[in-house]
Amino acid sequence: MNKIPFFLRLFNAVYFRLVRGTLFFLKFLSYKGVKLGERIWWGDFKTISIDFSRPSLVEIGSDVRINTGFTLMTHDASNMVLRKLFNDFVCSSGKVKIGNNVYFGRWCTVLKGVEIGDNCIIGYGSIVTKSIPANSVAIGRPAKVICTIEEYYKKRKEQSVQEALDYAASIQERFNRKPHIYEFYEEFPLFMQGDELDDRLPIKEQLKESYPYYKEHNKPIFNGFDDFLMKAGL
Q: What's this model's pTM, rounded to 2 decimal places?
């Protein structure tokens, strides 16, 4: 019996189940030499691929959200075509650096030779082939900057109000009842003063380190939850 194929199958099974499928994957990456910041949020490890063949080329900052389906590459194997055609072996590699406070939507890919600055949002399904400057929102295949983070913030502040009202109306329409306050665990800044707390809402958990600022400065546009529901036509 050929033991090598069996050993390889066993190794792969253990690797994907115990390493790729658990938090041990992070320790494994650090052990290999990948530079990881603090408070990185990871999606489904089984769908995340970090190219650690050249660990010194990978740097991921702090407060980064690595979502389900994420791929990071520091090299490619296109040299197989060149080898066949020109009988030459041409290497291919490049550093990937991801800054602090970066969000990736699901199923994003970051290719070699790319740097993503601090405070960036990379939209769903993007393929990042070129560097993205700090304080940018980028999306596409390939990813392109569509606005600054400040412009995105202002746009979302405006759109979030109507979205919250539409959400409240949808609850009434779907379930034939008035919405409950605990269903608005993201919309609460619209109708609650900064110093208000409610055990039904995870306010401190949602805001984390921003809670002290929110507590002092948040001024809702609606005069309480009932006023919010009234504006939604309920």
A: 0.85
